[in-house]
Amino acid sequence: MDAATLTYDTLRFAEFEDFPETSEPVWILGRKYSISTEKDEILSDVASRLWFTYRKNFPAIGGTGPTSDTGWGCMLRCGQMIFAQALVCRHLGRDWRWTQRKTQPDSYFSVLNAFIDRKDSYYSIHQIAQMGVGEGKSIGQWYGPNTVAQVLKKLAVFDTWSALAVHIAMDNTVVMEDVRRLCRDGLPCAGAAALPADPSRHCNGFPAGAELSNRPAPWRPLVLLIPLRLGLTDINEAYVETLKGFFCQTEADFDDWCQHVRKLSLLGGALPMFELVDQQPSHLACPDVLNLSLDSSDVERLERFFDSEDEDFEILSL
Question: Quick one: pLDDT at residue 190?
Answer without folding.
Answer: 40
